[in-house]
């Protein structure tokens, strides 16, 4: 992520209102219901709504993002909910997570630079224990059409930053797919995810 992009996210998260709300993503919430709580990592976690939800449900929660403002808001939300979130600021390359140490890795609207995306997904895969799950929801390539109709839905404007089934399967070799689908969704997440969009949903177990 460039300095300009980091500035963009710091500015977005600098308001006291939560850009994507304080409630967890519905897809993540549904997926966690079926899992035994363990150690979980949230990538590009922003203001912490999903990490805080996991912590409230008994998970040992770790998170990272490049935005210092995101961390500030996440820790504020954690304090409000009386839970703990271990939150680091930095690129994954620079952080000190151990291989095969997490029971789940979560990517909710975590759209990385397309030049880095595959490498980051491979790194995150290494952090999962065997049998651990990756849970991903992100905007699909078809989402651009929705964004043109209603910019309030948000999401990247760059096609290369959006997901397809092929990209996901290529980025996560060595996984048993539990779910891989494209779906139209109605998002109501804070200020910046409002309206209909197209998402890719992926759940898989590390073999």
Protein described:
Helices cover 31% and strands 30% of the residues. It has one domain: 3-Layer(aba) Sandwich (Rossmann fold). The chain contains 7 helices and 7 strands. By secondary structure, the chain is an alpha/beta fold. Strand 4, helix 5 and strand 5 (128-139) form a beta-alpha-beta unit. It is globular and about 40 Å long. The model has no long low-confidence stretch (mean pLDDT 97). The chain has helices at residues 3-13, 26-32, 49-56, 68-80, 117-127, 143-149, 165-171; strands at 39-42, 60-65, 86-89, 102-108, 128-139, 175-189, 193-206. A 7-stranded mixed sheet has the order 3-2-1-4-5-7-6, sandwiched between helices.
Could you provide a short overview of the structure?
By secondary structure, the chain is α/β, with parallel strands linked by helices.
Measured as a percent range, the helix fraction is 25-40%
Biggest sheet strand line-up: 3-2-1-4-5-7-6
Rg result: 16 Å
Order of helices and strands: HHEHEHEEHEHHEE
| Structural domain count | 1
Gross CATH architecture? 3-Layer(aba) Sandwich
Kindly name the structural category: alpha/beta
**What is the count of DSSP helices, taking H or I runs of 4+ residues?**
7
Task: Let me know the largest β-sheet.
Answer: 7 strands, mixed
Q: Give the amount of beta strand, in percent.
A: 25-35%
Q: What is the β-strand count?
A: 7
Question: CATH fold name, please?
Answer: Rossmann fold
